[in-house]
Amino acid sequence: MTEKIATREAYGNTLVELGRENRDIVVLDADLAKSTKTIKFKKNFPERFFDLGIAEQNMIGTAAGLAAAGKIPFCSSFAVFATGRAFEQVRNSVAYSGLNVKIAASHAGVTVGEDGGSHQSVEDIALMRVLPGMTVFVPADAVETAGAVRAAVSLDGPVYIRLGRPAVPVLHGPDFRFVPGKGVVLRKGKDATVIATGIMVSAALEAAELLAKEGIEAGVLDLHTIKPLDVEAVVAAARETGALVTAEEHSIIGGLGSAVAEAVAEHCPVPVKRVGLPDRFGESGAPAELLEKFKLTPQNLVSSVKEILTRK
Amino acid sequence: MEIKQLRAKAKEIRRHIIRMLGRAGSGHPGGSLSAADMVTALLFREMRLKPSEPDWPDRDRFVMSKGHAAPLLYAALAERGFFPVDELMTLRGLGSRLQGHPDMKKLPGVEMSTGSLGQGLAAANGMALATRLDGKDCRVYVLLGDGEIQEGMVWEAAMAAAHYKLDHLTAFVDHNGLQIDGPVARVMSPEPVAEKWRAFGWHTICIDGHDMEQILNALSEARTIKGRPTMIVAETVKGKGCSFMEGQEDWHGVAPNPEETEKALLEMV
Q: Which domains does chain A show, CATH number per domain?
């Protein structure tokens, strides 16, 4: 269980497999192929790889045209640029047009590290989640990433996949089945549930372990799909444990925490504590230092669970 | 279709545009009328199309990047047989397939949803890359506005089309010189237009965009160009064909009232 692989690395590897299986898959990048790992696809299938240079808007627009002509384009850049710089192209040329474009963006969240706040996307989930018809995947590890990328191909329509820079623990075995829109109960709880996405899933598992030592039974629900949200699993966690802590490497506004709060407010109101970036940008530092600074740690999830228990 | 018939068809399309906008009570007449001759030449002479099979994989593609000219696109598609001409009068109404700006999900023959300016050329590039990958001999056409080329993304796409040597892509700039806030040259000058496209690596042809013979000649020339895309910079008159709209910026986005509609139609007999 100690093996670590970056989700962007798993993305690059899966693209190569898919490139062999499906000739309609094409890949676009905006001068970041080495970082997003689309370079692996480029090396294997140069005729199906298009570098658009430092021009993310044009990358998304070009992908829309490729999709309109029957291709399955994957577009990659850093999350900040793919969803922010090109937002209106994603909105109108891709989502409004209902086109089969997959946006797989890496370097999401503060674990970008030293490059600093200009490059650390803490709003991409919110931006993509609000678009009608957009599916949003935030895989927690290499196995979920492979599943998300394959699921993206089988879904007809726009998909956003959020990927990260650092190597993260592999949580799932090879027999794990990625089902779009279905949360994964990684640990059953009684007192509270930590609902986590992306790299915060492994932190949630560690936190649950620590809490168990203190006699607190916290469940862990892994939501690799933010949209469509698994409302059933969220409501079940709310009913069974009566308190929820959400955990994401993203702003607490508009991301997983918001989605969960919206669902329980309508279907099963229980206390909710959102852990994430508190309406602020990131900054430079080592990834581990930044996770510490922004309280995206198992220790903080432990105190958040304890806090929510006092509100039950 | 021969030149004489094309001219008559363009006139018929202009009449549809006036009738549609008069009925809808809103929309963009100026830029629809200025580009009518080019779109007629494309849909009725230049392009390989199968209106009975709008998704035919071997078809040529036309992207109306200046989506505000939706009435023109709709009138031409209906006349070409993609959907009933009667439906034109539903323009902009609730439940209509003829949305205020073109929606590819709703209407057959619309290759790309446009209206947010500056995005059509990138999509056309994508189509050109896809058909080339598939080994098809399809051609791709785009119509841009001269105000539209103020959008920075147009130049990203201009660079990419030349970089990828998309010689089966031909674009028009409808150079009518006017945009909502006034003359294009005064709002934010894109001049010199032809030189810019040339500098971006495009084969560039300048024509009178209302002269059917010049339009057809330019399209023929584009077919002979290898290794780079072609830009046809077409000098046009905004509101062309309707005396009181011609060259008037105020007719960019205002529909004619019933009397004005009547008057315009009388001029287009």
A: 4-169 (3.40.50.970), 184-309 (3.40.50.920)
